[in-house]
Amino acid sequence: MRPGFGLKAIHLKILDTFDGGGASLPAAATTALFGRSLAELTEIVARLGQRPYRAAQLAEALYKQRVESLDAITTLPAELREQLQAEGYDIGHPQIVQSARSTDGTERYLMRMADGETVETVWMPDGDGGERGDGTQASDEEIAEEQQAAGQGSPSTYKRATICISSQVGCAVNCQFCLTAKLGIRRNLTAGEIAGQVAAVLNRHNVNLGSSRGNPTPARINLVFMGMGEPFLNYTGFIAAVHLLSGHMQIPDARMTVSTSGILPGILSYAAETVRPKLAVSLNASNDVVRESVMPITRKWNIAALMEALSQVRLRAKECVTFEYVLLGGINDQPQHVAELIALLKAPTAPIRSKVNLIVWNSGPSMPFHEPAPEAVKLFHASLLAAGIPTFTRRPRGRDIYAACGQLKRTLETPPPAQPASPLVSIAH
Ligand code: SAH
Ligand code: SF4
Asked: Which ligand gives the minimal distance to the CA of 230?
């Protein structure tokens, strides 16, 4: 057997069993109330002999007030809170057990789930530039803030941040350049665990999303499903989380972006959704040969099939699909690659309005790649622009704390015992 063949075969076999539904991976049994739909909450309160409006109060406390204990739900009678406690229910936010702050303000959190599994979540004040040019308000805000910083715009009246969330514990997609891939896959996150990362981070930063007289400048929060895992291999959890976040937690779907390595069944399901984040696709190569060598999963779905699936997505006015392209020195960053990429995106048959986000590869320990030369990045960027393709080179966030794209890997391999979150560990000043 060729070295490495067995491992790849196993990965493809695992992926065969998902096929976009993601139902085959176990999710943790949970006592958490957070993550439940209004219908589920109604069932719980009905079983405890209470009227349906109590479920609405419970949902309000869970998702709008983001309470952290049952005791804090003062709208519910003490008797009901005690009943819930006696039945074993708790709020169930993921617990922040470790944190690190970068020189650029980015914060990376290790989040512990009820069963001890951990994932990483990243807070990026001012966003990461990834939404520039995607035709949405989030993009307009980025541009306005840059103009203001350059003294050209009116003072900003909003606070802005992007939260990068994980969708799985580890990842089954064996991208050769990504640190998360080294973990393999452990399990899917539930909708509550995905949306719960957002609640935990918002609480950490005392973010008020509602607009009221007491809060004239509500924070603008953007979400990116770009942490650990492949969201479209946990489709059920991903889309249920989107509904919780947009329906209950006041974060519009147009402020969310989901990034996929190109799982076709997932893209087709996504194309049929009415409530959906914007889409980013990790293309990462200009032809199938290079793409298959760095992203073995793409043997299953080549670039032509990917483009065909993307043609099913009905974009909102001005919206673009973002093609992410991680520049790997000497592998996909050469002039012939940019020429192929331009041919692909400018083809008369190109299915969709798009933009390109170039990402300079972030290194990881013992990985067989190197960063592209700065001149190669500039030339690649300039060539795409010259061809009329909107292009942005992502500014890396939190590299010094391993919080940048593809650097997320649990730093605690052994789950810590449940305990209150430690204060922020500032590892850089
Ligand atoms: N699994 C999804 C989302 C998480 S990865 C996906 O692959 O799209 C988010 C982005 O980080 C992807 O575009 C991926 O190509 C990129 N990425 C992965 N490893 C990287 C690394 N080491 N340096 C820079 N970008 C990386
Ligand atoms: Fe998974 Fe995305 Fe990393 Fe590929 S790049 S291994 S899909 S997290």
From this structure: 1
User: What is residue 144's predicted lDDT score, i.e. its pLDDT?
Assistant: 61
CA of 53 to the centre of ligand 1 (A): 43
For the Cβ of 230 lying below 6 angstroms from any atom of ligand 2, the answer is yes
Please confirm, yes or no, whether 164 is among the known catalytic residues: no
CA atoms within 13 A on the CB side of 67: 19
For residues 325 and 303, the answer to whether their CB atoms sit within 8 Å is no
What's the sign of the alpha-carbon dihedral 260, 265, 269, 271?
positive
- pLDDT given at position 400: 72
Q: How many C-beta atoms surround the C-beta of residue 363 within 10 A?
A: 16
The b-or-e profile of 270-282 (16+ CB within 10 A means b, else e) is: beeeeebbbbbbb
CATH number of the domain bearing residue 62: 1.10.150.530
Ligand 2 centre to CA of 336 (Å) is 25
- How many residues comprise the chain? 429
How many separate domains does the chain show?
2
Q: What is the pLDDT of residues 162-213, one digit of tens each?
A: 999 999 999 999 999 998 999 899 999 999 999 999 999 999 998 888 755 5
Q: Tell me the one-letter amino acid at 68.
A: E
SS3 118: strand
Q: Does the residue 424 lie in any domain?
A: no
| Residues 310, 262: Cα–Cα separation, whole Å | 10
Residues 286 and 406 in one domain: yes
Mean pLDDT of 37-64: 96
Domain enclosing residue 49, as ranges:
31-90
Query: pLDDT per residue over 373-383, tens digit each?
Result: 999 999 999 99
Residues 263, 303, single domain; the answer is yes
Q: Which residues contact 357 (CB under 8 A, 6 or more apart)?
A: 130, 280, 322, 323, 324, 325, 391, 392, 393, 394
| pTM reported for the whole predicted model | 0.85
Could you give the CA distance from residue 111 to residue 197 in angstroms, rounded to a whole number?
7
Quick one: DSSP state of residue 315? P
Question: Closest ligand 2 atom, CA of 171?
Answer: 1
**How far is Cα 7 from Cα 18, in angstroms, rounded to an integer?**
17
pLDDT of residue 395 exceeding 90, the answer is: no
Q: Quick one: which of 382, 168, 343, 347 has its CA closest to 261? A: 168
Catalytic residue among 164, 178, 320, 405: 405
